Structures are given as C-alpha cells and as structure tokens.
TrEMBL record:
InterPro entries: SocA_Panacea. It comes from the Bacteria. Residues 31-143 form the Antitoxin SocA-like Panacea domain. This is Antitoxin SocA-like Panacea domain-containing protein.
Length: 187
C-alpha cells in the first residue's frame, strides 16, 4: 500500500519543477496558479490530469488541495501529513513572506515529458503576471461554475481549457475508470 506522499509525488515534483525553473522563491498564489494552468493544458490536450490533485475554488482562484496541504503541514497547521514533515521539509522551504523555495531538484522520473512541457509552458506564460492578473486569468468558467471553497469539476476545468468533445469524452471515461481503480495515473 502506498503512503500518502507516494500517491502525491507528481504534485511535489511539479512544485519543485516550477521552483527550480524560477531559481528563487515563488509566492504561493503564483505557484498554485502555474500548477492550475499546467493542469488545464494537460486536460485539454490529452484528456488526463497532470497530477492527482483536486482544485478548490477559493476567493483568489483555484488552489490545488494537496499542494496546499503540503504547505499547511510544513507550517504546522495540518496534521494530515504530519508524519511526512521531515520528508517535505527536505524538499520545500517556507519563507516569511508567503513564498516557497526548493531545497532539492525535481526528479524527472516522476514527471512525464508532457508534464514537463505543460509546466514549462505554464511557467513561461504566467511567471511574469501579477497577483491581480493571475487571479483574473484563473477566474475562468470552471472557477465560476463551482461553489466557492469546494472542489472544482475536472470536467469543467477541461471545458474551460477548450478541450474538444472527443477529449472530454476520453476524460470522462478516464475519470470513471480511475474511480473504479482500474487505472492509475501512470496508465
């Protein structure tokens, strides 16, 4: 049986990829929005999620719930992953100004080539944007269709990303199979 962290290594290494690319600490808001936009690209292109994370419709846009819990755990505000504080703190460092810094490099074996491509594209398109610009950009149809402070629909995120009908059909089949545990992310 996989540990909580093993189930979410792609999330950790996606965060590390973006932090490594920046070569300096990134604000949580910007980091989470770049994750969201990479996720949208994966859904629109291949009809599969980039990570196992779920996005919550928060006031300033979508927030990846597991990535957020990593941060909350390191702050001592979430006991869900408290057993993994040494592991998380060996990879991520929290700064006083709500920024996150990488303490290690991402593992390319944990990310597919398309994952890396979408993360690179998201970084290039969004790193330079301000808090307000990222907030406005992330307040898309998927965010608007969700009740605030609840999980956003992966289907709605794919639609907001411009996925074709065929891609959305594939995504719905993928999600249904994933629910029944017949496939994993690596499939």
């Amino acid at each position: 049986m996989k540990s909580i962290i093993e189930e979410h290594l792609v999330i950790l290494h996606s965060l590390l990829f973006l932090l490594n690319r920046a070569e300096k600490p990134i604000g949580r808001h910007k980091l989470f929005k770049m994750m969201y936009f990479a996720e949208k690209k994966s859904l629109a292109t291949y009809g599969r999620p980039l990570t196992t994370d779920r996005y919550v419709a928060m006031k300033y846009g979508p927030v990846p719930s597991i990535a957020y819990r990593f941060i909350q755990t390191l702050e001592g505000n979430d006991n869900y992953m408290s057993d993994y504080i040494p592991f998380l703190s060996s990879h991520l460092e929290l700064m006083n100004d709500h920024k996150v810094s990488a303490k290690s490099h991402y593992d390319p074996d944990e990310l597919s080539q398309s994952d890396i491509q979408f993360l690179e594209e998201s970084f290039d398109e969004n790193y330079h944007l301000s808090f307000t610009e990222l907030t406005e950009k992330s307040h898309d149809l998927a965010w608007n269709s969700a009740d605030k402070n609840t999980n956003m629909s992966t289907y709605e995120i794919a639609k907001a990303a411009g996925a074709t009908d065929d891609t959305i059909s594939y995504l719905l089949e993928f999600l249904e199979l994933q629910k029944s545990s017949l496939i994993t992310r690596a499939s």
